[in-house]
Specification:
By secondary structure, the chain is of the alpha/beta class. The chain folds into two domains: about 220 residues, Galactose-binding domain-like (Jelly Rolls); about 260 residues, no CATH class. It is built from 15 helices and 20 strands. Helix 2 links the parallel strand 2 and strand 3. Helix 2 packs parallel to helix 3, helix 4 runs parallel beside helix 5 and helix 11 runs parallel beside helix 13. It is elongated and about 100 Å long.
Length: about 575
């Protein structure tokens, strides 16, 4: 069983059955938003081209089409969802067709959101007829998202159409007729109506917002005082530009189904530059943010409101004339901020970009004719893609780089393994030899290999003459062992093949010893490679592998090929083609 070329081909194609514990994927996602958000038509055309970017989803626009569009209607009507204009579902049949045509075809962009804006905001909160239309707009948005296989909607509460400012009590045209408390009650009612409409269409939707109560837990010179930590928040809410927004959110929570999720995207994170700022904001949104909804909804708030963060790409570009540019603006800072945001977020981090783009040139599929297009973000901010990939999954990024290096060594015929008899072509040594440790054994093991198993276990570690592989049978917990000299900081690629029969699971572990052969913090420095799934592949041999770096003070690497949970001698596994390959110095 030594078809080396088939094995190498599978390896170079990335057919790994194992990964390190550190590389296990966490459910954190990067979502692209901004001026280059595609229409559904462009999303359909260009989705396959986006697979190599370090993104998990995008915001997108649904356009209205048809001969009966009313005069003056924005052809991207979800920019004006807070309007009294009646909409028809038939206008969006092409948008749904676009989404359904590519539904489930992307392995990478899985979390996509329909963009919905709170503009123009010229419908008063006491206008029942107008709010029936607004609720219906959100109903249609949820319907498109469900039918098109989207995760949900992304909601922007910012008023872009002045003088209308829907969440500011002071700007309401009927403020002289109705008190602030009356407006709070009405905003909560409208929130109920909007969420009930969406939930009726899509009970499992996610509403990713650019911000929720995050805008009110901290004082802001542009918006108003903090409303958190007060016995009565109403005086602060009265002065705040988004003072009616918490009541609207409270209405969402009143009728929010248990299957739905809200995400406070915390746009204030645009100015963060340290991990502490992200973690503190997460704590405040979770803690202080719940104070701004009614006591009856606070448990639901804690359970169904996630913390997210927004990153402003333009602020990271040192060459853009941007008033919000961050100190030390660079792709490196973007990577550090993305890593901190992903670590502190519950799930979503969204990227807002203006003078750059992720998506290809929209051409005729642009949201509007003659739309200005900007350079790709990688051209605008070189290194941005690598920085985000590193932040998104540092272990996977390092693994991918090491795998590529190893592939180059294979293709160049420069693979040199530090292991002796790693291909198990030789059986037990004819002459007796001493084990390197008092609890390691030699008898029956392949040449240059030792083995260990738990006390009182009766498993067997042998050389299988038929397959030319190391075999473990009936082992509750044990390993084949070989030690190799290493240098601190040295990087290695480790790979092997394994086949199982019956019950039990393989393990591949690396630990370290000092020059005096004492263990170097075995638990802290141990590297464990795990299978992609507990059940072994029924096809037979699976490939295991990954990279490791020698920690300081280590002089020896201890490679352990293990077996665990084999109840009988008929439960067996085989290890073969094991390599420990030094990678080039950096």
């Amino acid at each position: 069983m030594k078809n080396r070329w088939l094995w190498i081909g599978a390896l170079l194609c990335g057919a790994f059955a194992a990964s390190t514990v550190e590389a296990q994927a966490r459910p954190k996602k990067l979502i692209a938003t901004g001026w280059d958000s595609p229409t559904t038509a462009q999303f359909r055309r260009d989705l396959a081209l986006m697979e190599n970017l370090p993104l998990d989803g995008t915001s997108l626009w649904a356009q209205a089409q048809g001969p009966d569009l009313p005069a003056g209607l924005n052809t991207t009507p979800f920019r004006t969802a807070f309007s009294r204009t009646p909409w028809q579902r038939a206008w969006f049949s092409q948008a749904i067709a676009d989404l359904q045509a590519v539904r489930g075809t992307s392995g990478r962009l899985t979390d996509n959101f329909l963009r919905v804006d709170a503009n123009p905001g010229d419908v008063d909160w006491f206008d029942d007829e107008g709010w029936r239309e607004i609720a219906d707009h959100f109903r249609i948005a949820a319907w498109i998202a469900r039918e098109g296989g989207l995760k949900g909607i992304v909601f922007d509460a910012e008023p872009y159409t002045k003088p209308f400012v829907p969440f500011d009590y002071k700007a309401q045209p009927r403020a002289a007729e109705h008190s602030f408390d009356e407006y709070l009650a009405k905003a909560r009612q409208r929130g109920q109506e909007v969420m009930a409409a969406m939930a009726a269409e899509y009970p499992d939707l996610t509403v990713l917002t650019f911000f929720m109560n995050a805008y009110l837990v901290d004082a802001n010179p542009h918006h108003g005082p903090s409303a958190a930590g007060l016995r009565d928040a109403r005086p602060a809410l009265f002065l705040h530009a988004y003072g009616l927004y918490p009541a609207f959110i409270d209405g969402w929570l009143d009728v929010l189904p248990s299957s739905a999720t809200l995400v406070d995207g915390n746009e204030h994170a645009y100015g963060y530059t340290t991990p502490a700022e992200f973690y503190l904001a997460a704590a405040r949104i979770k803690g202080d943010g719940q104070e701004l909804v009614s006591p009856a909804n606070r448990a639901k708030y804690r359970q169904q409101v996630q913390v997210g963060f927004g990153l402003y790409l333009d602020a990271h570009d040192p060459l853009l004339d941007n008033p919000y540019r961050l100190p030390d603006a660079s792709a490196d800072l973007l990577g550090r901020n993305a890593a901190a945001a992903l670590a502190a977020a519950d799930e979503y981090v969204w990227l807002w970009g203006e003078q750059g783009r992720w998506w290809p040139e929209p051409g005729a599929l642009s949201e509007w004719p003659n739309k200005t297009t900007y350079p790709r973000w990688e051209a605008r901010l070189p290194g941005a893609e690598a920085a985000l990939a590193q932040a998104h999954d540092p272990a996977a990024a390092a693994e991918g780089a090491a795998r590529a290096e190893f592939g180059q060594l294979v293709q160049g015929g420069k693979v040199h393994s530090l292991l002796t008899n790693g291909d198990f072509s030789r059986g037990p040594d004819p002459a007796p030899r001493a084990a390197a440790s008092s609890d390691w054994q030699i008898s029956g093991a392949p040449a240059q290999w030792s083995f260990w198993q738990e006390e009182l276990c009766a498993g067997t570690f042998t050389w299988d003459e038929v397959t030319g592989a190391a075999r473990a049978a009936g082992v509750r917990d044990g390993v084949f062992i070989q030690t190799a000299p290493v240098q601190p900081g040295q990087r290695f690629y480790v790979n092997a093949r394994c086949r199982t029969q019956g019950k039990g699971a393989p393990t591949l572990t690396i630990a370290w010893k000092k020059a005096d052969l004492s263990w170097l913090g075995v638990q802290a420095n141990k590297v464990v490679f795990l299978p992609a799934a507990l059940a072994p592949s029924p096809a037979g041999w699976s490939t295991w592998g990954g990279w490791v770096a020698t920690p300081p003070d280590a002089a020896f690497m201890v490679l352990m090929l293990g077996a665990a949970g084999q109840p009988t001698a008929q439960d067996q596994l085989w290890w073969d083609e094991v390599q420990l390959v030094p990678l080039p110095e950096r």
